[in-house]
Write a structure and sequence with these properties.
Blueprint: H1 8-30, H2 41-46, H3 48-69, H4 74-90, H5 104-113, H6 115-132, H7 140-152, H8 166-184, H9 208-222, H10 224-240, H11 242-267, H12 270-275
Helix pairs in contact: 1-3, 1-7, 3-6, 3-7, 4-6, 5-6, 5-7, 5-11, 6-7, 7-8, 8-10
């Protein structure tokens, strides 16, 4: 089975959302001279509603583009809605420190159903879970971006049809477990009070190299063990539960394509029906 392909503009919208995210995260570090763009936490938080609206609008545009291009349809849209709800609840599953079950589904669906589907599932799951838990805050759009990237990358991995298929996904699960925390910290680290985080804080005019080194020390001192718990959770889930879920997703995709082709054959000539199939 091959992943569903759509218009190039669908991928362009996802890349546009990702480019927005990269700029939002790195703007305080990459500014000329390293000056502090957001002088206070309040100033940094003030941009969050705008980022959320832009990101939500781009997610809607991705869905519309997917429907127009044929990469998404009513069944996939319904599946996306169900999985977003399930994944939002999975965030509440208790576990060891740092563990979260909600990254499992974006990774496997991104791998089977495509990068755009994985991005949407990851980003929208964060938004829905925040509404469920009343955890809506300025950090939500940044978490949406990071979770979206967690589901995006597996869609670019080569498809390996073997018993070891879950291994590269598990490797990505470990990597993304650390990267998620590493990226998320960047939304608030540049506005931390230097008196609270002496030696690890953003320094106005310190330059990109100095501030990146300071952030690396901050991450090692505050977040790496928490992120290790998330990476371990991804590893366990993807190795143990990944193979049967991958088979289930493929059965869904294969049965759906069969019904579409069967309907097309009954209403069109053979040549037209052949052209209606996914490449």
């Amino acid at each position: 089975m091959t992943r569903r392909r759509g218009g190039w503009w669908l991928s362009l919208l996802v890349l546009l959302a990702s480019a927005l995210g990269v700029w939002i995260f790195l703007a305080p570090l990459a500014s000329p001279g390293g000056e502090r763009i957001f002088a206070t936490a309040e100033a940094r938080s003030a941009e969050a509603p705008l980022v959320f609206l832009l990101l939500a609008g781009l997610c809607v545009a991705v869905v519309v583009a997917g429907l127009e291009s044929g990469k998404l349809d009513a069944r996939h849209l319904a599946m996306l809605g169900v999985l977003v709800g399930i994944n939002a609840v999975l965030r509440l599953v208790p576990g060891w420190p740092g563990f979260s079950a909600m990254f499992f589904l974006p990774i496997v669906t991104g791998y089977v159903l495509g990068a755009e589907f994985g991005f949407l599932l990851g980003a929208l799951s964060i938004a829905v879970s925040a509404l469920i838990t009343h955890g809506m805050g300025p950090w939500v759009p940044f978490q949406m971006l990071a979770a979206g990237w967690t589901g995006l990358i597996p869609g670019w991995l080569p498809v390996i049809r073997s018993r070891l298929e879950a291994v590269p996904l598990a490797v990505w699960g470990v990597i993304s477990g650390f990267l998620f925390g590493f990226v998320i910290n960047l939304w608030f680290w540049p506005v931390l009070d230097p008196a609270v985080s002496a030696g690890h804080a953003f320094e106005t005019g310190g330059g990109l190299a100095r501030n990146l080194a300071a952030y690396g020390l901050y991450y090692l001192a505050t977040s790496i063990w928490w992120d290790a718990g998330r990476a371990a959770g991804n590893l366990v889930l993807l190795l143990l539960v990944g193979p049967p879920v991958l088979r289930m997703l493929r059965r869904f995709e294969q049965r759906f394509r069969f019904r579409v082709e069967e309907q097309a054959t009954s209403h069109r000539g053979f040549g037209e029906a052949s052209r209606s199939r996914d490449p």
